[in-house]
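It would be a great kindness if you could assist me with a short task in structural biology. The matter concerns a single protein, recorded as an amino acid sequence and a row of C-alpha cells. The record follows directly beneath this note:
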Amino acid sequence: MTSVKCLFAAVLLAIGVSGGFALTGQEVLDKVENAMTGPQDVESLNTMVLANLDGSGKEIREMKMYLAGKDMRVVKFTKPASVNGISLLVTGEDQIWVYLPETKKIKMIQGSFKNDSFQGTDFSYDEIGSYEYEKDYAAEIIKEDDKMYSLVMTRKPGSEKIYDKVTMDVSKENFIPTKVEFYKGATLIKVLEILDVKVIGKYTTPVKIKVTDKSKNHYTDMEIKDIKFDQGLKDKGIFTQQYLKKKE
C-alpha cells in the first residue's frame, strides 16, 4: 500500500471532529496523521487491481496487511501464484526489507531504491513506509469551506523526499483526506483518491483507495475485504524478518 505513503497508508484513518477554533495547516495535518495511527494495530485482507489507464494490462492480486503505529507494517501477497509469498517489512523510515520466494532471500531496500515501484504497483517502497508528513513538509491551508480543508505542503530544506509539493483535501467531518496530489516542480506525478469510507467498530476507515501514476498512465486500486483492529500484533512476532518467510 507512495507514498500511497499516502498510499498505502491511508488505510487506517480515524479521528473525532475538531472543536470550533480555527486550525492552522500544520494542525490539520497533525490531526490527519494522528488519525492514521488511531488503532493500536490493524490486520486486513485486501484486493488490488493494477492496470493501464486505457484498461489494458489488468491484473488482480490479493494481499494481507499488518500495521502498527506510524511505521510498522508487513505486506504479504497471496494471489496470484506469480506473486504469492512476496513480502515487505517496514520497521522505520530507513528500515525496509523485501522477501522474494524465488531467491529465498531477504533484501534491504536502501537509498534511491526506496523510490522504486513496489512489485509493479503505483506505490513506491518509501510510500509504504511511515506517514510522518510533518517531518518533511510544511503545511498551509490555501482554501477552506464548511466541508473541506485544502492544504499545500512544501518540502522542507534537507528533506530527501522526491516530491517538491503535495496538496491534500481533508474532510472536516472526520479528517480523512479525500484526494492527495504529488508534484515534482509544477508537474503532477501521482494522485491518491479515497473513494469509500466506512465506520467499522469505533474507527472511521477508508476501505477503497485509488492511486494513479500520471507519469506512467497506470493505476492501482486497493479495496479492503476484511479488517480487524487492536489484536496486540506487536506481541505476535509479525513485524520481524522471520515472519516474511511464513506462508499465509
Q: What stands out?
A: The CA atoms of residues 4 and 127 lie 5 Å apart. The helical segments are 6-9, 25-36, 133-136, 241-244. Residues 6-244 form a domain with the outer membrane lipoprotein receptor (LolB), chain A fold (CATH 2.50.20.10). Residues 1-7, 9-20 have pLDDT under 50 and may be disordered.
